[in-house]
Amino acid sequence: MISARKLRANRANARASSGPRTADGKARAARNAHRHGLILSVLADPALAAELDGLAWEIAGEGASPARQELASRIAAAQIDLVRVRRARHQLISRALGDPAYEPPAALKFNGALVIRLARALGATTPIPRMFNEMLRAKPEGPDKFAAIFSDLATRLAVMDRYERRAVSRRKFAIRAFDAARPGAA
Amino acid sequence: MTKPPASSTDVAPTRLALFGPPPLLAGEDAAAYDELLARVSGAMKPADVLEEIWVRDVVDLVWETFRLRRLKTSLLAANAHKGLKDILETLLAWHEAPNVAKSWAAREPAAIKKVDKVLASAGLTMDAVMAQTLALKIDDIERIDRMIMGAEARRNVALRELDRHRANFGQALRRASDEVVDAQFEQVQAPQITGRSAA
Q: Considering only CA atoms, which of B114, B150, B92, B57 is closest in space to residue A172?
């Protein structure tokens, strides 16, 4: 438990901290949720809202009651979130695979350390020997590149997997609610 | 409920857009993906848009599993010369092993013959080379295996949910048809009773 004095100080400091003050800071904070756009609501994007209406209509069917329409909208929202996450993951991998100059960060670090050691051993003005030059220029290709990308992106892919699991779970329960509300369902 | 303007009269392409583009990477065969989609759709016969969503999920996850399995195989094949080099270093002169392994990877007949002879003299086969290659690439292989397991688990969840949805739909259909039959039975019975009491 903290002392009363410390509590007062904390509260005073918190009141003084009212977020970013400069225009640049405010603009940066406003983009916080836009890092990958996956936590933004489907409704926040007019294009996605139109997609949501279209899919909800397909799911609910013609002449559906407002209650069924609402349940269908919940399924559609989860489905669109799922498509967004999958598209983001796909783009992340595609971009890295399509980059001819792609080099895994671990290789870049290793090569940097190698250049420094060579410069120390040979002197800064001596050209790098051919064998080392080839090693420095070598880039992963084919399956090695693919595997390096998966390793490099592992953390970000794990985050996206988490988003995907949440969207799948939301969609699952939304569909169960929709099925349970079907006319004639128990 | 009126159809929103976003959905045009052409339903199938609209739905396809709503499910997202096919998850193809550069160099992957779009025709093979379409064939897989057609085969799975033909086997599962989706009856409504929800079932179409699951079919698409299953197809995408099967495609991902195929891709990862291919990657695992080609990763081991592409690095086999490294595994071979490690083994040859214990059987040949240290400076000779990298060159022989390189030539073997380029499928030079003389190198292939030499490798077979050296391995046989040590009582080894290509299994030992693949085991060494696996040891070199174990982190990548493990990561790919985890991804395959994840894709297979997600595919099983999609299939389970599809089954549950179909069972619910079947039950609802049975209940609705029972109600219709009961209503008809009552309608038939009512005049017979009235007729008897009148006689």
A: B57
The whole-angstrom distance between A56's CA and the closest CA on chain B is: 10
What's the structural domain count of chain B?
Answer: 2
Kindly list the residues from chain A whose CB atom is less than 8 angstroms away from the CB atom of residue B71.
Answer: 143, 146-147
- Does residue B149 belong to any structural domain of this protein? yes
The Cα B121–Cα B34 span in angstroms is: 50
**A-chain residues near B17 (CB < 8 A):** 51
A173–chain B Cβ distance below 8 A for any pair: no
Taking the whole predicted model, whether its pTM rises above 0.80 is answered as no
**With an 8 Å Cβ cutoff, are A69 and B161 in contact?**
no
Nearest neighbour of B6 by CB, restricted to A53, A90, A161 = A53
pLDDT digits (tens, 9 = 90+) for A48-101: 888 888 899 999 988 889 999 999 999 999 999 999 899 999 999 999 988 888
ipTM: 0.72
* Cα–Cα distance measured from residue B21 to residue B37, given in angstroms and rounded to the nearest whole number: 13
> What is the domain extent for residue B129?
80-136
CA atoms within 13 A on the CB side of A160: 22
* Nearest residue in chain B measured CA to CA from A62: B1
Residues B55 and B146 reside in one and the same domain: yes
Do B128 and B168 lie in a common domain? no
Any B CB within 8 A of A50 CB: yes
- DSSP secondary structure code for residue B132 in this structure: H
Give the tens place of pLDDT for each residue, B53-102: 999 999 999 999 999 999 999 999 999 999 999 999 999 988 899 999 99
The secondary structure of residue B4, as a DSSP letter, is P
Instruction: Kindly state whether residues B61 and B146 are assigned to the same domain.
Output: yes
